[in-house]
Design goal:
five-stranded parallel β-sheet, Rossmann fold, 11 helices, alpha/beta
Length: 340
């Protein structure tokens, strides 16, 4: 027979266990209610965000037209240059091609209109750009094609991946991202996809990791001993020499990487300075566009948030304003035609 004091201990223990289980059940219930409320709030607020944080841009390159007979997104440009026409040959990648914006909204067409209006001259912006081109390919394109258009100025739009080569960490990351996007989701990932809250949390965590990795990758492309940057510096010297030998001014515009704060927290200011230094050594007039965008929200300057971080029509307009001013400083104005 169990002594009374032992029975009392057993009873007290049982009561304590039941109380603890009750507390656990209450906490669990409260947590579940909180999660359900959070899930509802996320759905109501439309918080099912697309993957972001430096995901490689996804674009259908809509509104490609016009594409001329040489394969460039441009009008047909006569060779030789017609009398009375002044020309800017525009070199670059997708930022110059104008991916995901209308043809007339891209910066080359904007400088064509701006220079014609402000200088009282007839200007043409000849586009020799193509998505994916880097500095080495652009130097070759300038030499092979650019001077046939008899430019009055050459404008190179520099984006920070212009020093990228096939061994770049960012190129490998982009390839991995594409491969992952094409992979079938696991059972666990399919389960997570049913919850807007879990998708939001997963996206935020992934975005933070992507941000840090891409910053590291782009900075690595401007290390002094990185082969791609060595080749890019040589390409700038080549373009500068080609222009100098023909008496044609060279303007290098450095675009920021959108998707970053465009203020003192912008992570690539040092890389901009390196490009500016190399371009100045080549004899170019340098236009760092970062100050022109300073303090603006990057989300308002891109095509579609993290889905497509190419500059939108607002960003192209700002770039064109800066470039019209720079070109006007380096290209002498034509003397007025005397009246008869």
């Amino acid at each position: 027979m169990t002594p009374p004091h032992d029975r009392r201990s057993i009873y007290d223990g049982t009561v304590a266990v039941r109380a603890r289980l009750g507390e656990i059940a209450l906490l669990t219930g409260g947590l579940l209610v909180s999660l359900l409320l959070a899930e509802g709030l996320v759905r109501l607020q439309g918080g099912e965000e697309a993957d972001g944080g430096y995901a490689p841009v996804r674009t259908d390159r809509r509104e490609r037209r016009p594409v001329n007979s040489r394969g460039y997104r441009d009008l047909e440009r006569a060779i030789p240059k017609p009398d009375g026409v002044r020309r800017a040959v525009c070199l670059g990648d997708s930022f110059t091609w104008g991916v995901s914006v209308l043809f007339d909204d891209a910066w080359p067409q904007r400088i064509e209109r701006g220079l014609s209006r402000e200088r009282g001259e007839t200007w043409e912006a000849v586009v020799l750009a193509e998505p994916g081109l880097g500095a080495v390919q652009l130097a070759a394109r300038l030499e092979a094609e650019g001077f046939a258009y008899e430019p009055d100025v050459v404008v190179l739009a520099w984006v920070l991946n212009d020093s990228e080569d096939k061994d770049a960490a960012e190129a490998r990351r982009a390839a991995d991202w594409v491969e992952e996007a094409q992979r079938e989701p696991t059972v666990f990932e399919s389960f997570l996809a049913h919850s807007a809250l879990l998708r939001l949390v997963r996206t935020r965590i992934r975005a933070t990791a992507e941000n840090r990795e891409r910053v590291r990758n782009f900075r690595s492309m401007y290390e002094d001993d990185y082969a791609g940057w060595i080749a890019a510096r040589q390409a700038l010297r080549t373009m500068g020499g080609l222009c100098r030998s023909r008496g044609v001014p060279l303007v290098v515009a450095i675009f920021p990487l959108f998707g970053n704060p465009l203020d003192d927290d912008y992570p690539f200011a040092e890389e901009h300075a390196k490009v500016a230094g190399a371009a100045a050594e080549s004899g170019a007039k340098v236009v760092d566009l970062l100050p022109w965008y300073r303090g603006l929200r990057w989300e308002l300057l891109v095509v579609d948030g993290p889905r497509d971080e190419h500059p939108n029509e607002i960003a192209h307009r700002i770039a064109a304003q800066a470039l019209v001013r720079a070109i006007d400083e380096v290209v002498p104005r034509e003397p007025p035609v005397p009246e008869r």
